[in-house]
What does this fold into?
Amino acid sequence: MEFNAYKMDGLGNDFIIIDRRESSINLTKEKIIELGDRSNIGFDQIIFIDKKKESSFPIKIFNSDGGEISACGNGSRCVAYLLGKNLNTKEVKLRTNNRLLNAKIVGNLQVELEMGKPLFSFEDIPLSKTINPADVSLKINDKTFSNGFCVNVGNPHIIFFVKNCFDYDLKILGPKIENHDLFPEKTNVTFAEVTDKNNIKVNVWERGAGLTKACGTAACASAVAALKKSLVKNKVNINFSEGILNIEVDKNDNIFMTGPVSEIKKINLKL
It folds into this structure.
């Protein structure tokens, strides 16, 4: 079986997008893992677009480890851009497993995504213990990491604010924190460095995908956590190796993420 798909990225965070609005295409977990391997096509996430229901397009998102997830900010922006060009519209609504996402094409290869509201309670993140999600300590490799901030922005995150975020080896720490007993659904891990009231550098380990060049939900989670700690203003730049995501948290806690997407590359997949 052969079919067309699309390869896109947001700041190097890369995706395969499969449009199944007109034909049913399903991949096994094993096939997703095979295609996601960097010696093959390689991607951080694979995203399926389903036929429009009411006013929105349902999407299904899978990490490169084959596990399904409920949120992918950069991937959603890429899907919105793809659909916007296909349908000749500037506005697209996407529906994930747990959220309705409003997207706008706001410039050349620039997409704004309304992510909704963050969730702060330990049940919603979720955490396995009744503790303060805004002040979490974890013991990893006989070292204690303190003042972690946990939040759900469609998926679970923990953020540690540090002086030099790239001093921490997430190839070692990332999987240990991701799979810690505190996180029943695992978690995304960010070490964040606030450089001033308008800028944050981040070092991200993505749940189910590992080290990625950028992560949209981690950008949102880091901005929210920093704002709640009064470290930044409500509009902040999240700095990745290949560029910036602009995050705004409005007075009602709605999160808006704006940033670049790549050109659309059509590819052929063989199964």
In short: The chain has two domains: 2-115+260-270, 136-253. The mean pLDDT is 97. The two ends are 5 Å apart (CA to CA). The first strand starts at residue 2 and ends at 10.
